[in-house]
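In the previous chapter we treated chains in isolation. Here, by contrast, the input contains two separate entities that must be folded as one system, with a combined length of 653 residues.
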Amino acid sequence: MKSYSNQRKVSLFFRYLLLTILAILWLIPILWIVLASFSYNDTGFISTFFPEKWSLQNYIGIFTNSQFPYLHWIINTLLVAIISATLSTFFQISVAYVLSRLRFKLRKPFLQIALVLGMFPGFMSMIALYYILKGLNMLNLGGLILVYVGGAGLGFYVAKGFFDTIPRSLDEAAELDGATKWQVFTKIGLPLSKPMIVYTALTTFMAPWVDFIFSGIILSTSGDPKTYTIAYGLYNMLSSSKGSATAYFAQFVAGCVIIAIPITILFVIMQKFYVSGITAGADKG
Amino acid sequence: MVKINLNHIYKKYPNADDYSVSDFDLHIGDHEFIVFVGPSGCGKSTTLRMIAGLEDITEGTLEIGGKVMNDVAPRDRHIAMVFQNYALYPHMTVYDNMAFSLKLRHYDKAEIDKRVKNAAEVLGLAHLLERRPADLSGGQRQRVALGRAIVRDAPIFLMDEPLSNLDAKLRVSMRAEIAKLHQNLKTTTIYVTHDQTEAMTLADRIVVMNAGRIQQIGTPKEVYNKPANQFVAGFIGSPQMNFFNVTYKDGYIDDGQGIKLKVPEGRTKVLDAKGYNGKAIVMGLRPEDIHMEEAFLETWPEAVVSAKVVVSELLGATSQLYMNVDKTEFVGVVNARDFHKPGDSVKAGFNLNNAHFFDKETQVTITD
């Protein structure tokens, strides 16, 4: 008979072994792309894992590339991300709060409809969106913001779950203390839901950086690379013409590393809130 | 200060079949301390919340200070309320919790500071003003909740089971503090509880409720000594009043299980006059009206039954004996000297001068 403590050691060993393997599998592509971005080459694809010669030329190249205005893409995306994150967060938190706190006739039907609607992937609507925006003459960054913000209200489920955990008696106490419904929201509801706001803002801020379906169909019409966002621009870099995939591959890799920077920084700063944001609904009984 | 009139108030929740509160009619005077008491789900909290404006009133009118308040927002009713779970704002310090209502009402800073510090002084919270609710003990949180009500200087306090989340010892001391507070502030107070001890000790008048209806309104003494019906008699008092299903005939009651006793003359007159001779009635007898001292047993030998002790509890000064006579069980609170072990055969004297008689059908007390 093996002793219990030995059994535990063995099982712990296998657990860590599995985690280590998974960690390596996760990290290798990231490491590879970072290394590749610093690798000097003038023939397109990078064939070695570790750079044979270190260089910053890919980074310099992407910012000075005349055909692909990378800096414009960053600014565009940042603009879209900030505006849509602000508006989306406001809508999402408002909808969630209303559905959690107020009682009205269509509340239940709305919750059900929202659940069903949420099951359809967003890009199902892209053809319709394209024609609507075209009709409104908004096939530009403004239209893109509209698309991101327009669907935000539907993402209320997580935030509503969070609001549901804040005791109603707090609202009632505040009302008796003399607060209006709006004051209850701003002075009690909002301060208590800081983690939820951060979580919502983070997720809505990130969406424009990675979305390429909507930015593709909406921004491609103009044909002007200066109006692209980063995801569509980078994709365009590799697919715009034959041979560009090899020609710009190294710069493309550098571009990918750069956009990871702002998101990573944001994550590190907000991590504390983020973690308590996604678990807040679960353990606040 | 202010009078509160609840005129025939009804409450029916949407989608509910029955009324949660029916025909609640109560007139509360200045400075009064009123306690709503009853079992869970009897409608006492609902009634309180209707007064606060947190629930709509289905029928009837609520007047505060002579004005009908049915359709006035909670914040305009000038009511301060203490909640069962305290409902402190977790993101604010103790000071801000207490100052919140005053800030909303745009009091000037110096006035807010004065009032908060005064309340903190009264409640012994002065050293805790900068803490947040999470860093306070249960008793301290309860004090902050009280403080939040006090600073308002509101003419009416509502308290919804404010002590039920505290441990037994703290509950007793906070109970005394609430009583003291009321003596000093003289604020009209409505207090909801399911604990009859709190009701008895705090109230000027008790409103006993059951199943959405008022069973009795009276001073603690009245509801204890002259319960209006069997429910009130059973709910107020601990241990509970003993009930015996008996037949009354020619001055005697008989439960058919071995308890056959002579009813004192004063009581038989009423029963006879009301036409209960030969009928089944319910007799109620409080545990302290069951005696075991020699003196009693010798003086009233015809009021003594032979019983067997089933469970006995020694509480120090007194002992509680759960006894039976055949299938009839009852409990007596007797002197600790008369403690008996389970299985002992004892003689128990029933002081029927203090007995209560109830109609078997309506459960209403039979009085003259």
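Chain B is about 30% helix and 30% strand. Chain B has a mean pLDDT of 91. Compare these points with the single-chain example from earlier in the chapter.
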